From TrEMBL:
Superkingdom: Bacteria
InterPro entries assigned to the protein according to its UniProt record, in alphabetical order: Aldolase_TIM, TIM_sf, TrioseP_Isoase_bac/euk, Triosephosphate_isomerase, Triosephosphate_isomerase_AS
CDD domains, per the entry: TIM (cd00311)
Self-association state and partner proteins as the record states: Homodimer.
Catalytic EC class: isomerase
HAMAP family recorded: TIM_B
Protein name, UniProt field: Triosephosphate isomerase
UniProt-annotated catalytic positions: 103, 173
Length: 257
């Protein structure tokens, strides 16, 4: 779709300290420049741990690297007595463009609810951060409710507080495919992505739905990315494990070569 620039996003999870992050981002940028990667044609974003963000910001701005970056979570609050939380205002100040919200690891390991996800989406937009909203069903959900029901309900809930046309990204990540080596099929990803675009049309209108990137995530590798990218409603990938390996992540980014 000409209205949507593909986005390949690397979720580092709790990997790479700030020194490792500097070396990694530098090498990744060199590798992609060496390969003449067209950053305007396929956007690249990385999501380091909070403690790396200042270092990544400094490097990206000093070397004018064409990489976007963001955080892996954000507080629903702006400031105050919320020990351990990180405000969207702080992330915006560090020139984060994106923030991941509602990753399945936060929903399961930290019991994040749809309501909390919605509050974080509202907070991100308030601070001019693009929320990268993760939705996806567990294996049990898939068996009980079929492929789209849970991701569709999660996206509706996440957008509950969003009223005006908004800059957002959606990632469809089936929980059973994350870190399992068992990716969804491109057909499965397309089916759910199309349903999610339907939710965007319903809630935010056709225009926003047409320009919103919907990513697939879950065991994406250089060997399967091209097939996902051929699907009309899949506009990129959220990559976990494979985003920590520079040659592999670079091959995923250059999927069209
Ligand atoms: C993720 O954590 O968002 C993810 C998709 O992980 P992986 O690529 O390792 O399955």
């Amino acid at each position: 779709n000409p209205r949507r620039t593909p986005l390949i996003a690397g979720n580092w999870k709790m990997n790479l300290d700030h020194l490792q992050a500097i070396a990694f981002v530098q090498k990744l940028a060199w590798n992609l420049k060496d390969a003449n990667h067209d950053f305007a044609a396929v956007e690249v974003a990385v999501f380091p741990p909070f403690t790396d963000l200042r270092s990544v910001q400094t490097l990206v701005s000093a070397d004018k690297l064409p990489l976007a970056f963001g955080a892996q979570d954000v507080s629903a609050q702006d400031s105050g007595a919320y020990t351990g939380e990180i405000s969207g205002a702080f992330l915006a100040q560090l020139e984060c463009q994106y923030v991941i919200i509602g990753h399945s690891e936060r929903r399961t390991l930290h019991n994040e609810t749809d309501e909390q996800v919605a509050a974080k989406v509202t907070a991100a937009l308030k601070h001019n951060l693009v929320p990268l909203i993760c939705v996806g069903e567990s294996a049990e959900d898939l068996a009980t409710h079929g492929p789209s029901a849970v991701p569709v309900a999660q996206l509706r809930a996440a957008l509950a507080g969003v009223t005006n046309a908004a800059d957002i990204v959606v990632a469809y990540e089936p929980v059973w495919a994350i870190g399992s080596g068992q990716a969804a099929t491109p057909e499965q990803a397309e089916q759910v992505a199309a349903a999610l675009r339907g939710v965007l049309t319903e809630t935010l209108g056709q225009d926003v739905a047409d320009k919103t990137r919907i990513l697939y995530g879950g065991s994406v590798k250089s060997g399967n990315i091209a097939a996902f990218m051929r699907e009309p409603n899949v506009d990129g990938a959220l990559v976990g494990g494979a985003s920590l390996d520079i040659p592999e992540f670079s091959s995923i980014i250059r999927y069209h070569k």
